[in-house]
Amino acid sequence: MQRRRRRCINPKDDARCYIDTGGDKAGLDVQYINAIKGRGIFTSIPFQTGDFLIEYRGELISQQECETRLKRYPARLKGFMFEFHFDGKLWCVDAAKEHESLGRLVNDNHRNPTAKMKKLSVQGKPHLCLFADRDISPGEEITYNYGDSDWPWRCKGLDEVMPLETCGATQAQSQNENIEEMVTNSDCTETTESFTKTTGQVFSPLSRAEKHCLRIASVSSLDRCVSCVGPVSSKWLGYECRECSQVWHKSCFRNIQDDNLHYLPKPSENSFRDELQSNQSESEKDQISDEGMSGLYIRKDLWRHVRRCPCKPKNEEEEEKPGRTKVLGLASAQESVFCQQISSGVWKLLNAMRQDEVAAVVRNDLSIIQFAQSLYSKHGQDPTKYEYIRQKLREVGRLLLCLRTEFSVYNLEEAVKPANCQRVVQARDDELIKSTKMFEKLYTSKLSEFVSHSALNTLSGAKYNKPSTLPFTEDVQILHRHLDKSAESAICNLKEEATPQNYAELAKVALAQIIVFNRRSTGEVSKMHLKHFNERDNAELHQDVAKGLSKTEQRLCNYFSRVEITGKRGRKVAVLLSPSMFDALSLLVSKRTECGVCSTNVFLFARPKCMSYYRGQDCLRLHASKCGAKHPEHLRSTHLRKHVATLSQVLNLKNNELDQVADFLGHDIRVHQDFYRLPVPTTQLAKISKLLLSMEKGQLSSIQGKSLDEIDIEDEISFSDAVNSDSDDDETAAPPPECGTSQPVTSASTSVITEQAIDHLAETVSSTVSETAPPYEGKDHEKARKTIKKPWAKDEVAAVMRHFKLYIAKGNLATKSECHHCKLVEGKVLDERTVQNVRDFVRNRGIARKRQSQ
Ligand SMILES: C[S@@+](CC[C@H](N)C(=O)[O-])C[C@H]1O[C@@H](n2cnc3c(N)ncnc32)[C@H](O)[C@@H]1O
């Protein structure tokens, strides 16, 4: 049960205090009740019986003046005339003029009023004050009995439209009971006298009752046409709904936010003009045109009116540009030019804001709207900036809201006046900022304490369960084969008929091949210029550089072409082209039709003339859907690059080698070490290409544990040797690629990559275009691919079988020293075979035997 609050101040003293200061008590709010009753005063805190509540303020006028005004006033304003007897005379408090005092808005209730009107004489002048007639709870309306008269809402029962809380409780009070005189000291006296209120106007009944909860706000969103109304007081107030933020003009209750909702009654032109006149000086009255309320417009509608305003001077019409409007803001009374296009964008932005108190403030302040316009004209092109603009507007809106409620500064223009500097600084709400920062700190430091242990476990567990998206070697090989096939047919098609479609087809495949082989990003390779390709380094391997390379490396240098393109952040990035890729690109270049000068800066992969280049990603996806790979994501070039990076760890790369791989792949590296090594282009051709080839063919197990240098130091292997030169196909076939890194690696399989393997790999890569590619300048690829095959003689076979028959039967591999021993023992018979030849023979025979037995 609520405890009764002890009154700490005498109600009369309390009233006197408010009479002196001219202010209203806290705990009382204006709310819009309905169209008939209009506004009312509601409590937000409890009051006890007898408490002083509010003063009915207005202009104290004599009876004579009252009569004159009553003749002039429209019916609606007559309801604000409060007549009473004081000191033997009839007086009147005229509260018709709109002002911020709340007493003038208290409604009538003759059945169960919550307050009673009393007269207090302060320094010889009468003051009308309302005191609580009973205990009032928060949220109740303050009402008093207007007196026994034929009030229209009483006889028509209109006060029942919005039923009063405790309707029908008591009998109507007599007119004489309505006002009491309060006897205090000599300065302040109480009187009880009869009073009269003139009959007020009743708004026309509505088809549906409105339940907006209004409060007073400065309606800066109502603009005035300069031509027909002219500047008026900046203190023009209106009503704003607390819940839906719609705004109404104070006198007409016209809904100005949404034109479709004209359910609030419009006052007649006359009544509006009357009220306007009552609020304006004589000079201002003259300016009010016969158009009546047409001088007031919703900002977004004003431009329409201004265009055809009959009051507009001729020269202004000429100045006006289409799509632009001249408006006069109420608050600023200054002309501003709005671009209609920007305005509509800004309105859309404002409407998309969370609809709350702050949004209402933003929408109703001219300066904030102008600020919004400037932000919109600056960032409006970019929709990603909309949220930023909204946040900025909300910041200013919050500031203005604080200024309004705490410091009675109603618009931004007032706020920027030097006199208000102190208030604005205070309104920044330092406390809130401080506490927000503190919360942020606490949140980061104490999160683990506040959030339950199991919740954190779930969060971290989700990371563990995330599937790895690296592609398997097998996937890469499938893709590689698919691309080879596609490239072959694309080359044939383009050679047959040079149509843009065929060109595009080959460009797509070649691009995809280059991306996959080089593990480059699509963005980088697809933007390769013709110029990059034409200006590639064609120079022969320099003798001095060649000395630092093994024979294999030298061959690879001749085998691959290296093109430099522009990568991310403008860095130079190398792309290696196998002969097949090179042939495809050469064909593409030869089929282009642009002039040689202007085509140098165009994208190589763009169709000639059409210039819409293709991205390898499409091709990768196409493949993924065709070959049934489970996760197309695996085939993304970034993943392919990760794939190389991961697999290169299977090798035993030295620091500088890792740098080289990283450099090629475009990772962060310590490039300064490059000083002490071979030139970068040569390293990339000779060493990295081998790694890429090994990846391509899934031969990783054969290079496991090796450094880049170790892979190619195979001096004992001659280039003329070929395992697949044997007459017996099964024995001499190149070893099949060992797919996948997950395959168990035997001690024998950890042998170094062979020349033959490289040959095989190289041949596979180039196989698709070797026949069909047109001749091109540069490398002697034919020479590089030429291998002299020497069939194994019967005595040679017999010599090896004597030593390794058992190995072959079991499918085991021979070690180097065992092969060496075999050569030594057999002497001349195996003179023409190297240790590696013998090893390969044993391995191939073993594989063949295995296949046969299966
Ligand atoms: C002093 S004003 C009160 C404030 C008024 N509600 C407003 O919004 O401006 C008096 C006028 O309020 C309206 N009014 C007061 N009490 C009412 C009631 N119980 N039912 C209907 N209208 C009432 C009448 O139009 C009256 O002329």
TrEMBL record:
Keywords: Methyltransferase, Transferase. Residues 271-288 have a biased composition (Basic and acidic residues). Pfam families: SET (PF00856). One of its GO terms (biological process) is methylation. The keyword Transport does not apply. Coiled coil: none annotated. The keyword Methyltransferase applies. PROSITE patterns: SET (PS50280). GO terms for molecular function: methyltransferase activity. Residues 740-749 have a biased composition (Polar residues). Residues 264-290, 721-749 are annotated as: Disordered. Residues 26-147 form the SET domain. InterPro entries: C1-like_sf, SET_dom, SET_dom_sf. PANTHER family: SET DOMAIN-CONTAINING PROTEIN-RELATED, SI:DKEY-51D8.9. This is N-lysine methyltransferase KMT5A-A.
